[in-house]
């Protein structure tokens, strides 16, 4: 099978890793990642780094050195915010995402076989993954969300540890010392650790092809199918064919399977939905809604914020989050694993914050000069100075020393506004695949960034897809099996993938919508009711052994859930 992954962001890179892990090695597959931006400088930096680990964080200065535009100095073609390296500032990877990472990581250079690969659920071989070690070195472990009110009241502490890992007899403070259940990490560093792993894998026997064959530059402009019948009630193709992918420079490539991991403004998604007129017309034309959030790198010691904690502060006019995103000791002795790294480590020099608020218009801070010296404003342009003024007004009255320290910092360093990013979310889609073209990650479900699940869900997509494809491909053999059988098996795998992933993502979507709903401008009564609801959540959680929904999110056993769906699908196939 010739498989093209469009987009070399978090989801594209991890999909490659998961496929290398799961696809039967005796089959003749070709896996290529096409990324719109030139990854050569990053690949070279990885290759030049003799110890085989990601290069030290480059920061914005180095981004300029490698000709990646810094925010505010973007070219007209593509906003800097969409380059794989610098979109966003920091991301949270929760326990469910970390578990996927540890499973899709390569066995490492120590000559381990595939069956000896790390598995954090059992703790087996967890010490041997270079990818996990790099992630743990780069980020800051998060064990707890501290929720409080803008009026200065403490509300609840939410443990990021699944309840099965909490012991009632042990004091919380003791438990926090053991193991890592969540990570806050610079988005740039996480992307670099994944890229480093892809380079490691592509150059080993474990992967397919060398780096040059796997990572290619190319901006996709169109995706075409040969004529086929589309059943508009299910959106499944009744006949699937080879897919043709066209690039900006006019090149065209044929593929048996195209995986669109090209982010929230996905070209692959556009091509899919242009072809298919769903009965629910509104859903078939997904609109991108814009929200204004303003994260940034800053490096004060947040007053009152202990290590290992994220602060989430609720107020009548929005909410505000903050936490550390790196650790002081980047070098742990030996090989750090999720189990042996202490979860309480000194914070490093970077941290992240964000402010979420309600807006009745798509862009609350339009650029003041709409013509921009003759240039039309782009959808991602906004007036950063106006955004800063509104931010100060919104949160200055909040009784929280950490928030006030952040606002002081921003006021004293106006250039920090360059680090502000608007963020986008997208409504849920009615289908994620049409024929042999599939959407994954933000291309199919851009969740609210404050849900803390965007990256973890992208990682879950990668692993679930690889398990589904390998399940249906395993009985086949390249020269013997007819092309049509490969296509039928691909269709079954993609259907199973949707069956397991769509309800799971829907849960996270609903959860993030509920959380987002708490950001409106409220009366005092509604504000008090919100605090009461948050407190009640904490009390019920303690009484009944943890927030059930959160537990279902964190302790999710993805491989078992996928296998359950595959069994049901196989049984249905046999009976039909
Ligand atoms: C400010 C911000 C904060 C966030 N915070 C969190 C958080 O705390 N926790 C969390 O889990 N998630 C968070 N997220 C979301 C998270 O970053 C994404 O959900 C995750 O990175 C999904 O990755 P992706 O690979 O699907 O998309 P992307 O990372 O957007 O990658 C898409 C890739 O495709 C490439 N591409 C685009 N178009 C084309 C084309 N036509 N041809 C070829 N290549 C193309 C792009 O250059 C890019 O490299 C945040 C996002 C933002 C913006």
From TrEMBL:
Residues 431-474 form the FAD-binding domain. GO terms for molecular function: FAD binding; monooxygenase activity. Signal peptide: none annotated. This is FAD-binding domain-containing protein. Belongs to the paxM FAD-dependent monooxygenase family. The keyword Flavoprotein applies. It comes from Cyphellophora attinorum. Keywords: FAD, Flavoprotein, Monooxygenase, Oxidoreductase. The keyword Flavoprotein applies. Pfam families: FAD_binding_3.
């Amino acid at each position: 099978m010739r498989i093209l992954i469009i987009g070399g962001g978090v989801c594209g890179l991890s999909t490659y890793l998961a496929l290398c892990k799961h696809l039967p090695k005796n089959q003749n597959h070709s896996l290529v990642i096409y990324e719109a931006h030139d990854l050569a400088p990053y690949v070279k930096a990885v290759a030049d780094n003799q110890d085989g680990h990601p290069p030290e964080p480059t920061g914005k200065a180095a981004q300029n050195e490698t000709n990646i535009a810094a925010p505010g100095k973007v070219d007209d073609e593509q906003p800097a915010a969409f380059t794989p390296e610098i979109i966003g500032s920091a991301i949270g990877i929760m326990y469910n995402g970390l578990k996927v990472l540890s499973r899709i990581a390569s066995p490492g250079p120590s000559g381990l076989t595939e069956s000896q690969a790390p598995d954090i659920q059992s703790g087996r071989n967890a010490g041997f993954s270079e990818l996990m070690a790099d992630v743990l070195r780069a980020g800051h472990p998060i064990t707890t969300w501290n929720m409080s009110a803008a009026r200065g009241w403490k509300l609840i502490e939410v443990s990021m540890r699944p309840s099965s890992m909490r012991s009632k007899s042990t004091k919380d403070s003791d438990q926090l010392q053991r193991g890592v259940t969540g990570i806050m990490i610079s988005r740039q560093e996480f992307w670099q650790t994944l890229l480093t792993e892809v380079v490691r894998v592509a150059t080993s026997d474990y992967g397919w092809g060398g780096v040059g064959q796997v990572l290619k530059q190319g901006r996709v402009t169109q995706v075409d199918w040969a004529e086929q019948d589309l059943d508009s009630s299910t959106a499944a193709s009744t006949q699937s064919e080879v897919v043709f992918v066209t690039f900006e420079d006019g090149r065209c490539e044929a593929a048996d399977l195209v995986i669109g991991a090209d982010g929230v403004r996905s070209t692959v998604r556009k091509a899919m939905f242009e072809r298919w007129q769903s009965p629910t017309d509104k859903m078939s034309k997904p609109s991108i809604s814009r929200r204004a959030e303003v994260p940034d790198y800053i490096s004060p010691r947040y007053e009152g914020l202990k290590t290992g904690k994220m602060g989430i502060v609720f107020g009548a006019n929005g909410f505000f989050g903050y936490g550390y995103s790196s650790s002081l000791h980047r070098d742990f002795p030996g090989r750090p694993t999720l189990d042996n790294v202490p979860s309480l480590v000194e914070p490093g020099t970077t941290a992240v914050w964000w402010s979420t608020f309600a807006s009745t218009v798509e862009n609350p801070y339009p650029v003041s000069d709409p013509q921009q010296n003759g240039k039309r404003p782009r959808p991602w342009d906004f007036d950063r100075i106006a955004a800063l003024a509104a931010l100060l007004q919104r949160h200055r009255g909040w009784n929280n020393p950490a928030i006030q320290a952040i606002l002081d910092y921003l006021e004293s360093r106006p250039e920090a506004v360059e680090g502000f990013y608007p963020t986008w979310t997208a409504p849920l889609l009615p289908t994620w695949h049409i024929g042999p073209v599939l959407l994954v990650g933000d291309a199919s479900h851009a969740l609210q960034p404050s849900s803390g699940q965007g990256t973890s869900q992208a990682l879950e997509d990668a692993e679930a897809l690889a398990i589904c494809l390998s399940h249906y491909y395993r009985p086949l053999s390249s020269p013997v099996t007819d092309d049509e059988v490969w296509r039928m098996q691909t269709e079954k795998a993609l259907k199973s993938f949707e069956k397991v992933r769509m309800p799971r993502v829907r849960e996270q979507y609903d959860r993030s919508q509920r959380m987002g709903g708490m950001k409106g401008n409220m009366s005092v009564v509604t504000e008090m009711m919100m605090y009461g609801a948050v407190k009640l959540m904490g009390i019920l959680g303690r009484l009944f052994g943890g927030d059930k929904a959160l537990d279902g999110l964190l302790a999710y056993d993805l491989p078992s859930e996928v296998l359950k769906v595959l069994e049901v699908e196989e049984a249905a196939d046999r009976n039909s």
